[in-house]
Write a structure and sequence with these properties.
single chain; 86 residues; alpha+beta; three-stranded antiparallel β-sheet
């Protein structure tokens, strides 16, 4: 379940994984409030991010509420981003 909710997470469906929990920053651990994530310290190696993105995973370290350990497979979002960039 997603923390604080009754909803299943993408992890529950095998569409997400967390790696490098010691190095990947997470906005909730930074003490930020929801909607005001701000900076979040992250040390996820860029090579790891690039490799997993090359396989079609999205890295949540780039999101407004960063979660540097979280990688997720979202083909619809990837397709949208590719169309928007062309």
């Amino acid at each position: 379940m997603i923390a604080g909710t009754g909803r299943l997470s993408s992890h529950a469906f095998g569409a997400a994984l967390n790696l490098n929990t010691e190095r990947g920053g997470y906005w909730r651990w930074s003490g930020a409030r929801d909607g005001a994530a701000g900076d979040c310290p992250d040390q996820t190696p860029p090579e790891l991010v690039a490799m997993l993105e090359s396989f079609g995973l999205i890295w949540d370290g780039k999101w407004h509420h960063p979660d540097g350990m979280h990688f997720e497979y979202r083909p619809g979002l990837i397709r949208f981003a590719r169309l928007a960039g062309s």
